[in-house]
Amino acid sequence: MKTITRTARRLAPLLLSVGLVMAGTALSTAKELLTINLVNEPATLDPHQQWNPDSYYVYRNIFDNMLTRDNAGEIMPQIATSWDQVSDTEIVFDLRDDVVFHDGEKLTAEDVVYTVERITNPDFASPQLGQFNKIIKAEAFGDYQVKLTTDGPYPALLAQLVKLSIVPEHVASTMSGEEFNAAPVGSGPYKFAKWDRGVEVVVEKNDAYWGDKGPFDTVAFKGVPDASTRMANLQAGTADLVVTLNADLAQQLEASGRGKVLNVNTERVAYFAMNSTLPPLDNVDLRRAIGYAIDREAIVEGLLGGFPKVVDQMLSPAHFGWKDGITGYAYDPEKAKEIISGLGDAAKAEMKLATSPVFDQRVVQAIQQMLTEVGLNASIETVDMATWLKDQQTSNDQAPMLTFSRWSCACQDPDGIMYPLLHSSSSWSRFADPEVDAMLDEARGELDLEKRAALYARINEIALEKAAILPLYQAAILYGASEQLEWQPTSNESMFLNRMGWSE
C-alpha cells in the first residue's frame, strides 16, 4: 500500500512553494512584540494534557507535531516527511533529520517512540488517551524512521497524528508532569520563555528553527476573561490579536475602524450534554423533551449574529463523514411541556448546568431560560476553566447533570469528536449504549471510506433517537486583530505564529 508515501512525495514541491510564500510573509515588516489576549491563561503547556483552545494556542507553537494541516485543511508533513502503509495495521514514517530541540539536542526516532508511549500509557492518564490508544507499538529503525502498529486498522491515525506533539525524551522522562508543564521544551518555531501565573505566558522566536521562522521576536499570551476588555485592549493598542469575540462586539469593532474582524467556521461543534447515567436524565423521554425545548435557530440568529450554522449531528461540515439530510429536534416547547408534565415530580429535580467563562454566557443563560420555561429546574453553576475540565473528566456519578460545551479535536475526523463524547469507555462520555459502542469501535477500524462514513451517519441517527447528546451548531470563531496583522484563521483553530505576518 504505497499510495500514502507517493502522495506525501508529490506534496514536496507544494510544501516548498508554501514555505517560500510563508517565508516571504515572515520577511515583511518585523514586529518585536506581539500581544495576544486569550479568554483564560493556559490550563497546561504540556501538549499531552489538556487540549482546550487557550492551551493549544500557546503550546502548538512550542512543539512540532508528527503531521500538520495546511490552511486549507489538508494533512501535510511536519516531523514525518513521508509514510508508507505497509499493512492494514502498520505505517512506517520517515522523519526529518534536521530538527533540534530548544536545548540544542537533536530530535530522533527515539523521541517519537517515547512520545507515543507517554501519551498512550494509561498511568500517565492523558485526557487525549482515547485518540491514540489504538496505537499498540512504536518502534524506531535507526535515527529517523519509526513504525507505528495499531490494534486493528485505524483510518483516523493520520488525522490524529496531526495533533501529536513530539516531546524530548531526555527532558520529559526526567521530570514530573508539573515540572514539564512549568518548563516545556519543544522543537517548534517559538520557545518557552516564562509563565507569570495569572498574568501572561511569553514565548520567544526560535532562531534555529528548521522551518519558517516566526515574524515576531517575542509573543505574550494574556488571559483576559471579559470579551469587552479584550476588544478595548485591541483598540487601545495593548493587544494585537484577541480571541472569541461575540457578534455584537465584532460589529462594534468593524464600525470603530480601530481593528478588523477575522472569522472562520470551524470543526468545533457546540453541544448540550446530559448525564443519562443518572436520574432523572436516565429517562430518554426527558432528554428528548430537552431537545424540543432548545431553540437553536434563536441562539444562532438572535445571539450569535448568524455566524454559526445549526447542525443536527455531532459533526461539522469541516469533518470527514458529514452527511446532509440528518434531522434533529425541531423547537417545540409545547411538546416539551407535554412530555415533562407526564413525568411527574422526577422531572422537577434541580439539575446543575455546568459552565465556565470561556463559553458565551448569553448562550448558557438562554438555554437555562428555555429549560425553565418548559418546566425544568435548571440552575447555572460557573467555575474556572481548569475546574470545569476536571469536573468533565470524571466518573458519571460525579459529573455535572447538564453541560453546554463546544468540542474540537483539531483532527477533522469523526473519531476525534464522536468517540470521546459517545463511547462509554471515555471519561468525557455521559452515555452508555452497547450498540453505539460497537459501531464506534467498528468505524474506528473500517478502511473503506464509504462504509466508514455510513457507520458515522447511523451512529448520529441513533444518538438523536436516544437523545444521547444534543448537537447545537457549528461554531464560528470571531477574532479581533490589528489592521497590520496578516493571518488567515483555520477550521481547526490552530494559531501558527509562523504563518502570520505584519505590515505597516
TrEMBL record:
<feature type="domain" description="Solute-binding protein family 5">
    <location>
        <begin position="74"/>
        <end position="426"/>
    </location>
</feature>
<protein>
    <submittedName>
        <fullName>ABC transporter substrate-binding protein</fullName>
    </submittedName>
</protein>
<comment type="similarity">
    <text>Belongs to the bacterial solute-binding protein 5 family.</text>
</comment>
<dbReference type="InterPro" id="IPR030678">
    <property type="entry name" value="Peptide/Ni-bd"/>
</dbReference>
<dbReference type="Pfam" id="PF00496">
    <property type="entry name" value="SBP_bac_5"/>
</dbReference>
<feature type="signal peptide">
    <location>
        <begin position="1"/>
        <end position="23"/>
    </location>
</feature>
<keyword id="KW-0732">Signal</keyword>
<dbReference type="InterPro" id="IPR000914">
    <property type="entry name" value="SBP_5_dom"/>
</dbReference>
<dbReference type="InterPro" id="IPR039424">
    <property type="entry name" value="SBP_5"/>
</dbReference>
